[in-house]
Amino acid sequence: MRISTFFFATFIILRLCCRHSPTAQPFEPYPTANLSTTWTNDDSGLVLIRKTKVARFTCGFIGEENYPSYLFAIFISPPSEFPSQYKVVWAANRNHPVKNNATLNLTAAGELVLKDVDGSIVWTTNTAGKSVAGMNLTDAGNLVLFDDQNSVVWQSFDHPTDCLLPGQNLFQGQKLKSSVSLTNSSVHEGMYSLQVTDRGLFAYVESNPPRVYYGRLVRGGNTSKGRRYIRFINGSLSFFIHSFELSDRYDWIDIPLASSAQYMKLMPDGYLKVFELKHEVWTVVTDLTSDFLDDCSYPLTCGRNSICSTNQQCSCPGIEYFRPVNNRQPNLGCSEITPLKCNSIKDQEFIVVKNITPFAFTADMEGVNMETCKQECLNKCSCKAALFQYSSNASSGECFLPSELFTMKTAGAYQNASLFIKVQNAKSHNFATIIVASSIASFVLLLVTIGFIMYIVNKRKGEAEMEEEYFDQVPGMPTRFSYEELKIATENFSKKLGEGGFGSVFEGSLEDGSKIAVKCLEGLSHAKKSFLAEVQSIGSIHHVNLVRLRGFSTWKSQSFLVYDFMSNGSLDRWIYHGIREQILEWECRKKIILDIAKGLAYLHEDCRQKIIHLDIKPQNILLDNDLNAKVSDFGLSKLMDKNQTDVMTTIKGTPGYIAPEWWSSTITEKVDVYSFGIVLLEILCGRKIFDRSVREESWHLLFVFQKCWEDGTLLDIVDRHSEDMQAHNTEVVEMMKVASWCLQIDYTRRPSMSSVVKVLEGGMSIESNLDYNFTDPRLQRNSCQETELTPLLPSVLSGPR
Ligand SMILES: *[C@@H]1O[C@H](CO)[C@@H](O)[C@H](O)[C@H]1NC(C)=O
Ligand SMILES: *[C@@H]1O[C@H](CO)[C@@H](O)[C@H](O)[C@H]1NC(C)=O
Ligand SMILES: *[C@@H]1O[C@H](CO)[C@@H](O)[C@H](O)[C@H]1NC(C)=O
Ligand SMILES: *[C@@H]1O[C@H](CO)[C@@H](O)[C@H](O)[C@H]1NC(C)=O
Ligand SMILES: *[C@@H]1O[C@H](CO)[C@@H](O)[C@H](O)[C@H]1NC(C)=O
Ligand SMILES: *[C@@H]1O[C@H](CO)[C@@H](O)[C@H](O)[C@H]1NC(C)=O
Ligand SMILES: *[C@@H]1O[C@H](CO)[C@@H](O)[C@H](O)[C@H]1NC(C)=O
Ligand SMILES: *[C@@H]1O[C@H](CO)[C@@H](O)[C@H](O)[C@H]1NC(C)=O
Ligand SMILES: *[C@@H]1O[C@H](CO)[C@@H](O)[C@H](O)[C@H]1NC(C)=O
Which reaction is recorded as catalysed by this protein (predicted)? Predict the structure, then answer.
């Protein structure tokens, strides 16, 4: 009898138990084996079995029904042997299946050798002479070769394939590699890998170079002391550095507590799923990558050269140039109708796709315009497309020239990003030979140029510090400036713009004339690597309503962040009566409010890693030359938060802007929504949240606001210093409802920032049934205490913490 199982959606034979005679005693295999034992891949492909309370682990041969090729593997199944529920969690020979009658030999020398039927060695543990005493399939599903002292000489846990079992570690240097496809029966290694690096946990797609599509950064620790690793344990995927103590873990990703057996698998489509046995059936309990990625953000959701729009609709970029690989399965991607030819550049042109985000953006060129970007792609044979994006100045954008096009994701109108896909015109050309000659000439010239540039780049790189290596392959890394460059740019840090919560800010200008703001952070040296990791993460975030991080620098114990300079300073200079430079009109305030909302919505919902700002206040909203509002200092709370395991003790928001749940429950992005509500109220009323220049009962704007709701006198609090605001007072009151919605004490009742954007743009209405009690007793206590102790300068309210 053979037990068949659905494995990779096709019939697979698990060669198990019982010789042909049904009356024979069922052969009960052992969980351990002695040296000099040989197993043959015949009707019983069984090697070892270990039963535990929650699962049964089997070690043996597994193969397809009509195709005589087998893997030596470990499978996990319910204790009751439910045939269709055998799942392979480890395999020795994924790339080299063996045939019938292949042998597995635990030799007298202590080596486990897999030989195909023709005698060729397919796989071995290479442990001969290492005093192996026997083999054990443990309770955890780990195949172990142990010695006389019972210590591990070799174990399958050290050679993971695409799964992790509870208790298993994945060390830096090891990787999980996905199998090929759910619908493809051949069991080859696939496109994706999961690895632990100095910076955290990353998933890559195979390409040249491999590109990150999922990243979880881990901060802290001195990495020179030991390898980093993750361990899959009951309840979490935990990050460790060197130590094996659970209490020493640096970070973790929650996983539902196991009520039965679990395993984690890097799926053929790039998802990282955790399965659990529920009523003898394997059920997905969580998907770790999809916390950060939507379905369109996986490299091959729609296959190659294909566009993924919401609801996972796949389409080809241009029907004249691309066709679906399979008309009935649009998710298999698109192929070029006429392949690109390097020697006929003259016949190449671009088709354009607007509002696109690639799953990983690596700026190959910066500060260029669209034409330069496109031309560079035409000049480069391997270039498949030119992706150009900019925030406000179209002649100073970023250019990305990928050599492979994976699934492209349509973005909202948040970015000025255009993708130019290179295509080959089919029409033949008479001047082909001339072109070949001239293009060879220009190609040679190009090579010389590239060679020269690379020489310069390498030279500079060599001079930089060791950590430079750190950034190889990381998408969107901002520029690293030398300390000398910054000293010159800021005229020896002479023009101080202000003192923020994280350190001083200086004005400067770069050689190309662009103005910068340099933020100087003190005392981060011991966390240098984490600083770099965080900078990389912040630097890869680009949005028109976020202040762009252009670069960074480290020098002795100081770290510097280099931002675009915002000529109109921070919002607090514009909205408070008394210190405002010029009174803003209603239309302008509306635009600023929408800008802030869009910036926050992007941080919360469209970034690869959700970012909670934690310190939204007018001092952190900057205005550029045209009064476009941009959120600044995002990601810094994370950067400064060295003790990552205890968010609450290390992050202090600014009194007045802090959501009431701050001291009690978990921090979600809704704390930013609350702070946004306060800022909104300040903009509408033209005053600070605390203002002791007014009557005592009006010190706290929220009390005033609540009272006005109760009395129906909201018109009274519209900014009185602006005639334009008074003229639009009904609209302003309408906007106060948005503020009320954002200021709900129960954070679950606050809207998401994208809903706020929709409301502001008129595409959605405000939820009715709001709670107009805004004054939480706790809020009152904490915030008012603070104001009584300090003079009421805005710089103090936002002062150093
Ligand atoms: C291994 O050998 C020992 C004696 O040396 C014997 O007791 C034991 O049953 C053997 N185990 C297996 C699985 O054959
Ligand atoms: C496997 O070996 C058995 C006996 O040793 C033989 O009868 C059978 O034909 C072999 N099968 C294959 C596919 O070589
Ligand atoms: C297993 O290995 C031993 C040497 O350790 C060898 O003598 C024996 O013939 C091998 N068995 C098979 C079936 O290859
Ligand atoms: C095999 O592993 C189990 C734990 O899974 C352990 O209890 C047992 O002692 C091990 N046996 C040998 C022979 O090492
Ligand atoms: C399965 O994948 C292999 C390797 O990628 C490929 O050669 C084969 O054509 C695929 N088979 C099917 C049925 O898609
Ligand atoms: C996981 O932990 C929970 C809570 O500590 C416990 O109830 C459960 O039995 C554990 N699961 C396994 C498979 O050990
Ligand atoms: C846009 O960028 C270009 C190139 O960096 C620069 O010359 C130009 O002055 C910029 N324009 C504006 C409006 O900032
Ligand atoms: C795109 O750029 C233009 C300036 O060229 C700017 O007015 C517009 O706001 C930008 N749009 C977005 C969504 O960034
Ligand atoms: C890490 O530890 C080593 C010694 O264990 C020390 O030399 C090095 O300076 C430390 N690095 C940092 C960044 O603290």
Answer: L-seryl-[protein] + ATP = O-phospho-L-seryl-[protein] + ADP + H(+); L-threonyl-[protein] + ATP = O-phospho-L-threonyl-[protein] + ADP + H(+)
